[in-house]
Amino acid sequence: MNISRRSFIKAAGIMTGYAVLSMNIAKEAVADVMGFVARRQESVYAADANPEVYKYRKSQNNPMITKIYDPENGFLHDGPCGHESHELLHTHYIDRSEKLKALKEKGIELNI
């Protein structure tokens, strides 16, 4: 490969320009993200300072939640720690590692 000095300087200048440009784009992207985080943080603190924004700071004080758990007419009438609410609202862990090992031993590749 035979490159003249002028072509080398031209290519080096173009690559340097792209490197500087990409650094500026990256800096602007980081600045935009940090600005968004700052605005979000300010809005959260402003909402916390104003009790009229969120009337129900605790879920147990929310009238919709108390209606769901109402002992007489509620959907989950057996209470927040009852059997029905446990079955509907909680997840259970199932160990599938042995089945995964068996599939890998057969040569099956999984994208997990």
TrEMBL record:
Domain (Iron hydrogenase small subunit) spans 31-97
Instruction: Tell me the domain of life.
Output: Bacteria
Primary localization: periplasm
Q: Which GO terms describe its cellular component?
A: periplasmic space
List the InterPro entries. Answer: Fe_hydrogenase_HydB (IPR008953), Fe_hydrogenase_ssu (IPR003149), Fe_hydrogenase_ssu_sf (IPR036991), TAT_signal (IPR006311), TAT_signal_bac_arc (IPR019546)
Q: Name one GO molecular function term.
A: ferredoxin hydrogenase activity
Name the SMART domains for this protein: Fe_hyd_SSU
Q: Provide the E.C. number(s) assigned to this enzyme.
A: 1.12.7.2
Instruction: List, alphabetically, the Gene3D superfamilies matched.
Output: Iron hydrogenase, small subunit
Q: Name one Pfam family in it.
A: Fe_hyd_SSU
Relate the assembly described in the record: Heterodimer of a large and a small subunit.
Please report the name of this protein according to its UniProt entry.
Iron hydrogenase small subunit
